[in-house]
Structures are given as structure tokens and as C-alpha cells.
């Protein structure tokens, strides 16, 4: 007796084929997410640099009207304060235990030249890197602004690169 074997038509995909397709989709997704993160970081830094530029223009307008750059307090020189207002807990800068405070007198003086003070973004919440600080310099009557950008070795715009901290770039402008 002969058994006649019928050829079975194969329908669907094998397990190996499905695993290969899933692996390819995973690789493509990881590449897309990496590109999105890079684009998001660049957009955040561009926005942040435009905020710093807006503050520099405010400082120049203040200087034009008063003959000196804004002092950090009523009569204080050399003290460092947050640029902007609305920071969590009213403090900015980084986690060295030396966070800077907002200064209402300083912010009120700046509001004469700009309708709303830009609030620099939180760059790295895990390292508490947020905002920018302003310091009126005693010598020469200039100012010092320091800020962070997301990612190492970023272009500081008009500022000068200082160092990398917690995977981010610390920048400084001295006028």
C-alpha cells in the first residue's frame, strides 16, 4: 500500500522570518529615536540661545538709559541672581549646593525693557542644571552671564565654552 502524500501549501510566515522583521523594525525605531533626540536637543539649545540674546539686548537698553549695566540688587554688585523668574523653588543653577535665587528688584528693572522675562529651560533635571545666572562685575561695571546647553561640547553662541558638566555644556558671556 502506497500512501500518497499531498504537498501542503505553506501559508503565513515562519518564526524566524517574523523575528527578523521585528529585529529590523527595532533597529529602525532606535535610529529614528536617536535622531529625534538630537533634533530636540538642537531646538532646545537654539531657543535657549535666543533667550540669552534677548537678555543681552535688554542689558544694552538698560545701559543706554542708565549709563551702567543692571546691578543684581538695589545696590549690590558682585551678587549672582537667576535670569528670569518662575524657577522651581525660586532657585536656579546647578546642584553644587550653591543655587542662586531670583531677585524681584532685578527682574522689575528688566521688565521695563521686555514684556515677559524668558525663563530658561531645565536642561538636565537629574543634575538640576537649569536657568542662567547674572552677575554685575565690580571692576569695569560689566556683567557676567553663565548658562547651560544640552549635550557636551555645544556651540555657546556669543558665549564662551567653559566646561562639560553632567553631559551638558556650561557657557559664559563676560561683557
TrEMBL record:
Which InterPro entries is this protein grouped with? Bac_GSPG_pilin, N_methyl_site, Pilin-like
What is the membrane topology noted in the UniProt record heading this document? Single-pass membrane protein
Main site of residence?
Answer: membrane
Query: GO terms for biological process?
Result: protein secretion by the type II secretion system
Query: Which compartments does it reside in?
Result: Membrane
Q: Which GO terms describe its cellular component?
A: membrane; type II protein secretion system complex
Q: Which domain of life is it from?
A: Bacteria
Q: Entry's Pfam families?
A: N_methyl
| Positions of transmembrane segments | 12-36
Keyword set, alphabetical order: Membrane, Methylation, Transmembrane, Transmembrane helix
Q: Which PROSITE patterns match?
A: PROKAR_NTER_METHYL
Q: What is the name attached to this protein's record? A: Type II secretion system protein GspG C-terminal domain-containing protein
Lineage summary:
Bacteria, Candidatus Kaiseribacteriota
Amino acid at each position: 500500500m502506497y500512501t500518497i502524500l499531498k504537498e501542503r501549501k505553506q501559508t503565513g510566515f515562519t518564526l524566524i522570518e517574523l523575528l527578523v522583521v521585528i529585529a529590523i523594525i527595532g533597529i529602525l525605531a532606535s535610529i529614528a529615536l536617536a535622531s529625534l533626540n538630537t533634533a530636540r536637543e538642537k531646538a532646545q539649545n537654539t531657543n535657549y540661545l535666543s533667550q540669552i540674546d534677548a537678555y543681552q539686548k535688554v542689558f544694552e537698553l538698560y545701559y543706554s538709559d542708565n549709563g551702567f549695566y543692571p546691578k543684581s540688587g538695589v545696590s549690590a554688585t558682585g551678587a549672582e541672581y537667576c535670569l528670569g523668574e518662575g524657577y522651581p523653588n525660586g532657585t536656579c543653577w546647578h546642584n553644587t549646593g550653591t543655587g542662586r535665587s531670583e531677585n524681584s528688584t532685578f527682574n522689575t528693572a528688566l521688565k521695563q525693557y521686555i514684556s515677559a522675562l524668558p525663563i530658561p529651560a531645565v536642561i538636565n533635571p537629574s543634575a538640576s542644571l537649569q536657568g542662567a545666572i547674572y552677575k554685575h562685575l565690580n571692576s569695569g561695571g560689566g556683567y557676567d552671564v553663565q548658562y547651560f546647553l544640552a549635550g557636551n561640547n555645544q556651540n555657546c553662541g556669543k558665549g564662551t565654552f567653559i566646561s562639560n558638566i553632567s553631559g551638558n555644556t556650561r557657557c559664559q558671556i563676560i561683557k
